[in-house]
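User: I'm designing a mutation panel for Coproporphyrin III ferrochelatase and want to avoid disrupting the core. Could you give me a predicted structure to guide residue selection? Please restate the sequence first so the numbering is unambiguous.

Assistant: Good idea. Sequence first, for numbering, then the predicted structure tokens:
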Amino acid sequence: MPEQHDHRPYDALLLLSFGGPEGPDDVVPFLENVTRGRGIPRERLKEVGRHYFLFGGVSPINAQNRELLDALRKDFAEHGLDLPVYWGNRNWAPYLTDTLRTMVTDGHRRIAVLATSAYASYSGCRQYRENLADALAALQAEGLPVPRVDKLRHYFNHPGFIRPMIDGVLASLAELPEDTRADAHIAFTTHSIPTAAADTSGTPADHTEGGEGGAYVAQHLDVAQVIADAVREETGVAHPWRLVYQSRSGAPHIPWLEPDICDHLEELHGSGVPAVVMAPIGFVSDHMEVKYDLDTEATAKAAELGLPVARSATVGADPRFAAAVRDLLLERAATERGRTPERCALGALGAGHDLCPIGCCPARTPRPAAAGADWEGPVAQAPA
């Protein structure tokens, strides 16, 4: 098998995502899945789900994952990579456990996993690994073989993830009124998380100099700087920028990362900024947090202020991202075979770790998490 097509030891790829409702009757059951164990009343979930009902009860995320699934299969086929690609979700059909059951039934025992979350954090990495551990335990309880699953490294700074976002920011700047373009600011946005979760994200070596925000903030700042530098090189203009947050949830007394995008827009308008590009670098696709929190809520706030805004595209099913996934898969496969492959990464932080270290992005309550250095669960032997 040619080295550039050698996916051994892996015999399948799993696209692992969050999931979302696909109709009005799905909204509350979906939110019950997301919030299970927190004791949130059903009536409160109906209120929380109001933004889904604005879109007919349908989250865009599942359709976008189908597009990414097709893009991955197309890219693999075009590059001679004979590897099946499956899809499973944490919180909605197709459920992760069901997908892994199908994969095992189909004979797969060594599975690479791509999570649709590019950065380090409990909710963006370890929780996915906990869900994998739960699914593997369920297979074991059913008497099925338990495959080995390896989560591919964080890809926040892979060129195939960043370059489509650079193009998106450039396109959005071109959409702004011409007389505002040169002085436009860029608001790089990502999902807010509790500051306690941010401060413990990644490992201590991954943190910013001051330690605050952990790897989660450090990685986003690195991506924002790479994009801002690329935009300056392309346009000759050094646009001011800031990392801001959106989609906060949870109790008001718990500190979360700030500033919120809407508050930031008010601040920029008050200081005389003529226009803003909102660049959602924390999201792989245009799912509900982008469609509602940016395209609906933040855009309405900008209109109220009379502030021109444009929202740049997420990566989605861009062929360059599909190619990046292929690269990440082959890179990890080569490492598993004892090779030392080239590891592509832009910015100052370098390529991430293959195996999540012990204590990385710790859980509030310790739980088994697969695909990490601390995983001690059962693993089936891959076929020779």
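For picking mutation sites, this is relevant: The CA atoms of residues 278 and 311 lie 5 Å apart. Confidence is low (pLDDT under 50) at residues 380-384.
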